[in-house]
Protein: ABC transporter substrate-binding protein
Organism: Streptomyces cinerochromogenes
Amino acid sequence: MEGKAPIMRRSALAAIAAIGSASLLVAGCSKADDNKNENGTKSAGANAATKGVVNASDKKGGTLTYELSDVPDSFDPGNTYYAYMYNLSRLWARPLMTFQPGAGEEGNTLVPDLAASKGVASDGGKTWTYKLRSGLKYEDGSPITSKDVKYAVERSNFARDVLSLGPNYFQQFLAGGDKYKGPYKDKSDKGLSSIETPDDTTIVFHLKQAFQEFDYLVAAPQTAPVPKAKDTGVDYVKHIVSSGSYKFQSYAEGQQAVLVRNENWDAKTDPLRKQLPDKIVVKLKVNPETIDKDVLAGNAIDLGGTGVQAATQAQVITDPSKKANTDNTYGGRLVYMAINTTVAPFDKVECRKAVQYAIDKVSVQTAEGGPIRGEIASTVLPPDIPGYAKSDVYATKDSKGDVAKAKDQLKACGKTSISTNLSARSDRPQEIDAATAIINSLKKVGINATLKQYPSGKYFTDYAGVPKFTKKQNIGLEMMQWGADWPSGYGFLQQILNGKAISQSGNTNLSQYDNKDVNALLSKAIGTQDNNERNSLYTQIDKKTMDDAVLVPLTYFKVLLARPQNYTNLVSTAAFSGQYDYLNIGVASK
């Protein structure tokens, strides 16, 4: 997911504890941990939220504020693909499964949410059955049924001309999914026959092949129930019917959303949520520096979870009292540049290899904020995702690029120079800085790239994620950041490498890579029961992708979060890119 991702997670602040876990947290506490905050209270210490819950409290009341520098793709749970919206949307949209609130790797633990228990697999993993909890209600008091879950999956996956922003796993894997036209064109009440609802609390998914990680798939907000009678397609975002602990009081597109308690939410049906604040305000299009100030003042959370800005970073790591209220974590996210294989001359592997050798990755790392914001990368899979194997196919001295090798590949491609465009998100300053560093590297070898900036809220729907647009605009290179949809090689690789994932809008396979061998390996992996065997297939996919040079790994992303002192139940979770778990944050003191 784009951070997915967006949409995940080491540091100059302290030494790395270990490699291979799903959280890879910064080791130990610094001297700053013992400093008091400016208000005189003792801080929990640097990286405290990566090890446990900070300011644990069940006290209710107050207004919780989130701030975002742009707008999300959508508040509609069936039409979103950013990690922070997967995280936040659980307040109003309960999926069948979700992730247990917990620090680091503990946060990767799958638990039932709308479902009463994990899925029951049969037919070798091709059939999955879920039973809903009893007593579930929407905000209007009407009952939630399995038919509403079925409908939610159908609208989110089978009406791509209307709702195109989320992934399309269900469309790819459900039996008959390639033929079903979706609920807006299907005027009957039958819907897709491979999703059965034998009664109001049972839902059965029939797949065309074994899918051994299906419990992870149904943790996506696409399984949050939607009442068909209340669905208005793309306009549903204006009047979302809540199944969670909060409901929408108001929604002003591009400005803010206000959530209040859902009085028909029943804690007896929900062991996960605490419903602590009286009100939750989500402010949009807030200046990034303003967000940092508000967070440091203890009055807001950075919803995007991408960390403080460069200027703020310098402040917090040099001030012991501020540093003591930061969390620096790493996990499952890759910053990379996609090379568009359909835009000439990058349809030739030699031209793509020229790009690989040309880039000074140290300059990119510096532009992003230094080692505290990312470790130099050389593989598709980050070190904390199953299937990772250390490798560097395009190694250069000190990772600073190799002009001679780049020019050799350019010559092998039949070129002495290339003119192209590089896309990046206009509201992400560090991404712009990284893109600028790349442009400077490429220029040294005769690849002249012009920066094209687009807003993140429309990056995938209107620009980089639209194949026709990128071809017409000669966008051969695209900045990207990606986190696992779930913590496995498949959860990371599928939506950025599988040819079947390419769509005409909302596309996240920005390289438009459609390799039959990679597609087959992905299909084989997800049907393989043995974990070790499955992970070895992910390693093969990584190697094949790098050999084909379709994306340039830049850094294994790390985030430096400022922790608002006035908020409770703050815990950094690997499940959502190192962000704080948004399910139970409060604002009242103990």
Summary: The mean pLDDT is 90. The longest helix spans residues 531-547. The radius of gyration is 23 Å. The longest strand covers residues 326-339.
